[in-house]
């Protein structure tokens, strides 16, 4: 700023020769220069004072920062000393803990192992339907990182004893369950037979540990077992009733209800099985009808044996009618006529038997056809998917076996029925032949007596 003022004065001095005539203007210029110099000095003084003040403030801040640094260093020293003391104390405490634990470390491992086993057993136990939430305690105990307390050990022992005690009880209580339609029902009366079975309204239930609920089996066992379950639920406190027990805690019951029904087995036989069943039904009905016909004819022949007069309403009567219509015929001619009459009656008595024979021969052959078709399907599955999954081959093998079983099932009763009907037919024909032989014998005896 001072250099600019000097420059301004020099300029003015150079200009003075050109303004010698204006003395007043120079005085004013001098006065302005003096005022400018004073103003410049005042500004410089203010700036200097502000710099001094700021320097003093920075010195004070520096002293404060140094004091705070010294305080933090002292605090760090104290914390380091405390940390070192804690480290020494921790080592001493760990040594004391190891000395005092002794055999308790082995006990801790055993408790965790037992708690883990009990957690799984109780989660799958049917007793949990009556006392839910037991497995959570054992889950926490199995995952604990500290030694179990005396109270926890007592609780574990209590749950073990309660499980043993409840396994020998038959108890009725209220519980939620999921029925066969998948709908949840609340507060159903159920009866628990130890840890083996749970029933409700004559239906067997199964405990689902994942859902924590009883589930009604979608397929129930045989009717007699359901009757046992219903009688058990309706029995009084002192009444003794029969009840089926699943000693495997539901494993056998699950396998029983998974066994295919007759309808499912028939469906496994597919079209070949349906054909065999149709032939079997037709053959049995036809055999029964032929049996009824032979029974009626046999009764009529038996009634004819008790009468002297020939009745043309039965086979024997028609044979005897031939003799009564030809009393004067010679023995040879009458014998031929009687043989002809017996032949006429033999065909109706043996009618239908060849058809039954054809059916019991064809049925196992059709079953064999189903076996071949099933094996072809099995080999096709093996070709497409390999032998890694046996379930892929189950359909063809089931068809092969079921059709064989159906063929034999149809053939065996039809064979028996054919044998019975044939035996009955032959016995009736034998009666006709015996009566005809008796007539010939009596006629020949009379003729021989007359000739002598």
TrEMBL record:
Membrane topology: Multi-pass membrane protein
Primary location group: membrane
Leader sequence residues: 1-22
Record keyword Transmembrane present: yes
Name of this chain's protein: MotA/TolQ/ExbB proton channel family protein
Coiled coil: 19-96
Natural source organism: Wenzhouxiangella sediminis
Domain annotation MotA/TolQ/ExbB proton channel: ranges: 323-433
InterPro entries tied to this protein: ExbB/TolQ_transport, MotA/TolQ/ExbB-rel, MotA_ExbB_proton_chnl
Bilayer-spanning residue ranges: 272-296, 358-379, 399-421
Any one GO cellular component localisation term in the record: plasma membrane
Family: Belongs to the exbB/tolQ family.
